[in-house]
Write a structure and sequence with these properties.
- The structure is a single chain.
- This protein has about 675 residues and is α/β, with parallel strands linked by helices.
- The protein has three domains: about 280 residues, polyphosphate kinase like; about 170 residues, Endonuclease Chain A (Endonuclease, Chain A, 2-Layer Sandwich); about 180 residues, Endonuclease, Chain A (2-Layer Sandwich), CATH 3.30.870.
- The chain contains 21 helices and 26 strands.
- The strands form four sheets. Strands 14, 18, 19, 20, 21, 23, 24, 25 and 26 form a nine-stranded mixed β-sheet that branches.
- Strand 19, helix 18 and strand 20 form a beta-alpha-beta unit.
- The longest helix has about 35 residues.
- The protein is globular, with a radius of gyration of 27 Å.
- The two termini are about 50 Å apart.
């Protein structure tokens, strides 16, 4: 057992910034198609907004805890926030350089000009004036008196102009109605040059007209980020009690976590704004003239030039399901795997549609973490209800940013006769599971679907996930017991095959790591290979450190943050971590243990995070079918071998790309996986 002082951990929130820097690297990469680089800038911006709404917000909440308790738990929220703001400032400077010195010039080379109000020609000025008249009913200007702790309220992540007046003790605030009018406006053109402007600039040009009784001195764009938590997160359980707030009003009325403002705003105006909003200096974040770069997801491409985008990758047709008239018969004969987004999510939707129509199907049970607003999944469940099937839907009410949509769908399912179960206060249901029970000649038979991604066709088109259809009797039986737990009929879902959080996952993973440690001591084959989104659990990290010290080779793929520090002598020298950021978002989890040559492979919904092991309903499944196991392992190995989009996660957090040796084949794993699956399923 390592001594406490030997267990070194990174701070998760600081290391998360290292992940977002990898996203920024993709925007910086000149080999990435231009419009995809813009999307990576948008992803970076969107990630950062959520980070301030959630993680920085939680650090502020921790500050409310008694100082004596914070000291006992070694919690230093103020120090951490200062470190965060310093790193964010560096990243935003880098962001600005990428955008201004690389992206904008490349757009212009392709005949696309993002122009500002100072660059408008006369005909554009006239167009801008007409456009402003068209949207003027969406503009809601107000005048605010300088007053410490005044009643000015800025909605979460909405854009505004702060307008200062000459020789007055008040100022103006103008909303920028992006939600109603869109962010970008294209000017008509008879040439090959395409001119586009921000909605911000059209409004900014008319500000003097909006405040005709005042002499406008300055116009500065601002944006407030607010606490997005509906409950206090559970990572410091026992100190901060998890609770649901009374309503979704917290989403817009939550405490401020960051005010982003134009860095050219004079200090005197910054101070007035800060005091009026009741903010501290630490809440103020200087930025550029424009905010909310997540809007670049919708930046128009008037050229329709395919070279500015990723080359399309048509979904691979599954060699069995594509030709199967009877999905149940096909799954009865063999386990079937799916890999998104390389394959279409249609197969999952078709399975549900067939279950809804099949006369032998009596019951459908499903756990849903994020429900699409309208989808074939929800339509199939509603159809099943109309056809007299028993439908049980477990809905996670606390899926961050999707709470309202999830609850609305829950009510709709209830109205149609489904049994709907919502999450309860201290447990989230994060598993992605589906169980269909069919009355066949030999009695009831279960058909299961277990995945790493949500039942959502939109995310399935951009998230890399893995799934398994199986009729394995022991698996379907244990899955049935999990649903009994969700329905309140069982307390503990005992099983020998599935790993189920919070009941058995931690113990089984710990036992398997300890087994590798013991095998290494005895000179037997040992090794741990794991792929996940995040690595944070201190107990698992301590076991991995012990494994490293005993000579176990630990190879990890961690897309997001990791609290484990690799490559440290006498602590983690046998641990090597890489992270892949590429065209698709890596989201799947796989766990492979050498086991003295008798490999064991698992996949499922849980990361090695405390919340996934102890405070969420998660399902990790074994891969028993030898052919599918080889398929999973081949995909995993391709990612381990990535030398194009993989970054090394070392103690210095430098985010260096994996170095390709001279004459070594370039392996870009996402494209290699696509080609591998395409070849396998065309055979």
């Amino acid at each position: 057992m390592l001594k406490p002082e030997e267990i070194h951990l990174r701070h998760r929130d600081l290391n998360w910034l290292s992940f977002n820097d990898r996203v920024l690297q993709e925007a910086e990469d000149p080999t990435t198609p231009l419009y995809e680089r813009l999307k990576f800038l948008a992803i970076f911006s969107m990630n950062l907004d959520e980070y301030f709404q959630v993680r920085v917000s939680q650090l502020r909440q921790i500050k409310r805890v008694k100082k004596s308790i914070r000291k006992k738990l070694a919690l230093k929220p103020s120090k951490t926030v200062k470190e965060i703001l310093h790193e964010v400032k560096l990243q935003q400077d880098k962001f600005g350089k990428v955008y201004n010195r690389s992206i904008l010039p490349e757009l212009e080379k392709n005949g696309i000009f993002l122009i500002h109000r100072e660059q408008f020609y006369e005909h554009q000025e006239k167009f801008a004036e007409r456009y402003f008249r068209k949207i003027s009913n969406c503009i809601k200007p107000i005048t605010v008196k300088y007053e410490e702790g005044g009643d000015l309220f800025l909605e979460n992540n909405r854009l505004y102009f702060l307008v200062t007046f000459r020789n007055e003790d008040n100022f103006g605030v103008v909303n920028i109605p992006v939600e109603e009018c869109g962010r970008f406006v294209s000017f008509s053109s008879n040439t090959e040059e395409h001119k586009i402007t921000f909605l911000d600039d059209l409004i900014k040009a008319r500000v003097p007209e909006i405040f005709p009784e005042h002499e406008v001195e300055g116009i500065f764009e601002i944006k407030m980020s607010r606490d997005a938590e509906l409950y206090i997160d559970d990572e410091v359980d026992g100190v901060l009690a998890e609770k649901i707030y009374e309503s979704l009003k917290q989403r817009t009325d939550g405490q401020p976590t960051r005010l982003l403002y134009d860095a050219e705003m004079p200090e005197k105006d910054q101070k007035i704004l800060r005091k009026t909003l009741g903010l501290g200096k630490i809440d103020m974040m200087p930025g550029g003239k424009y905010h909310n770069f997540s809007d670049f997801f919708s930046f128009p491409d008037p050229t329709d030039n395919p070279k500015l985008h990723f080359e399309p990758l048509p979904p691979i047709k599954h060699k069995v399901l594509e030709h199967a008239d009877d999905y149940f018969d096909a799954i009865s004969k063999q386990d079937l795997s799916l890999h998104f987004p390389y394959m279409s999510f249609d197969y999952v939707e078709h399975f549900l549609e067939k279950a809804a129509e099949d006369k032998l199907v009596k019951e459908i049970k499903i756990s849903i973490y994020r429900i699409a607003e309208e989808s074939k999944v929800t339509s199939a469940l509603l159809k099943a209800l109309k056809n007299g099937k028993s439908v049980t839907v477990f809905i996670e009410a606390k899926a961050r940013f999707d709470e309202k949509n999830n609850i609305d769908w829950g009510r709709k399912f209830e109205e149609e006769g489904a049994k709907v179960i919502y999450s309860y206060p201290r447990i989230k249901v994060h598993s992605k599971i589906l169980l269909v029970t069919r009355e066949e000649a030999d009695g009831p038979k279960g058909y299961a679907y277990i995945g790493t991604g949500n039942f959502n066709s939109k995310t399935a088109a951009i998230y890399c996930d893995h799934a398994l259809f199986t009729a394995h009797e022991k698996i379907t039986s244990e899955l049935g017991r999990i649903f009994q737990v969700l329905e309140g009929e069982l307390i503990i879902p005992r099983g020998k095959h599935l790993l189920i959080s919070p009941f058995s996952t931690r113990k089984v993973f710990s036992d398997m790591i300890n087994r590798e440690i013991e095998n290494a001591r005895l000179g037997k084959k040992s090794g741990i290979t794991a792929k996940m989104n995040s690595l944070e659990d201190p107990e698992i990290i301590e076991l991995l450190y012990r494994a490293s010290n005993e000579g176990v080779k630990v190879r990890l793929l961690v897309r997001g943050f990791t609290c484990l520090i690799p490559g440290i002598e006498k602590m983690s020298e046998n641990i090597y971590i890489t992270s892949i950021v590429d065209r698709f978002l890596e989201h799947g989890r796989m766990y492979l243990f050498e086991n003295d040559g008798e490999e064991e492979l698992y996949f499922g919904s849980a990361d090695w995070m405390t919340r996934n092991l102890d405070r969420r309903i998660e399902v990790i499944a074994p891969v028993y079918d030898p052919e599918i196991a080889e398929e999973f392992k081949h995909i995993l190995q391709l990612q381990l071998d990535d030398n194009v989009k993989a970054r090394i996660q070392d103690a210095e957090e430098k985010n260096e790309f994996v170095h390709r040796k001279p004459n070594e084949k370039a392996i870009r794993s996402q494209y290699e996986i696509y080609m591998y699956l395409k070849q396998k399923h065309s055979a």
